[in-house]
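Per reviewer request, we include the raw input and output of the structure prediction for the construct analysed in the revised manuscript.
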Amino acid sequence: MIASQMDIKIPVVSCSYIGHGDNKMTLPVGAQVELDTDRRSLEIQEISLPGGIP
């Protein structure tokens, strides 16, 4: 389903270099990020690790 056709109230990011495998960036689930649509950037602010793993 195309995000523009969905009635959602959260940001949606779509690009070909996010995912798993060679030449892909994997985003950690639950990470706090800053999404700047003016600069077209996504910056990871903090990663929460399970069980307090350092």
